[in-house]
Amino acid sequence: MKAVIGFTKGLMSMPMPWLAWLGLLVAVNVAGPIYFFEALEAKVVLGAFLASAALMTAIFATRGFVRLLGIGHIFWVPMVPWLWTRLDQIGPGDPLGYWIIAAMIMDSISLIIDAIDVLRYLKGERQPYITVAN
Question: Which of 7, 59, 123, 130 has the fewest beta carbons under 10 Å from its own?
Answer without folding.
Answer: 123
